[in-house]
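Archive record:
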Amino acid sequence: MSSTISRRLAPLRLGILTFGVLIAASVSAPAVVPAHATTAGRTVVPAHATTAGRTVALTLKCKNISCSGSWFWRQGGLTGTLLGSGSIAGPANATTTGTTTQPAAADTLNFGVKAGSTSGCGRGFIEYITPGSAINFTATVPSKTPGSYGTPCPGAGSSFNLKS
């Protein structure tokens, strides 16, 4: 009889355990770092670095249409531990700059640029780096979407550069 009750209560115990883990995770999560830099009304959202590292200059150049760039620092490859992330946005025909921190332990950088709302008019990359090393990477919006018919991209040539 006690084994029957134990089996019936297993889902309840799992739910309580899951709820407890979620509470612990939310209480111990790092604070969100508020946006700290603005450029002519455009906000740069900084990455939350878990360890000290290099300062990285961000340069977003938008051509003909507004655009945005984003980045993710990881340790242990693309599916490894997320160390920090951020984004930057700018208006058409303008250059927006900012800075972020490259976590000292980061060995993977996933970043990209997107211009306008046309599907396929963005470009993303994954770069495997030596932790603590200097970087200089650029993503540029293509002139046309992929495929044999290739729809023109309104923000072709817009770019996002990360350099330390």
Observations:
- The beta strands are 37-39, 42-45, 53-62, 67-75, 81-90, 94-103, 108-115, 122-128, 136-140, 159-163.
- DSSP finds one helix and ten strands in the chain.
- The longest strand covers residues 53-62.
- The two ends are 66 Å apart (CA to CA).
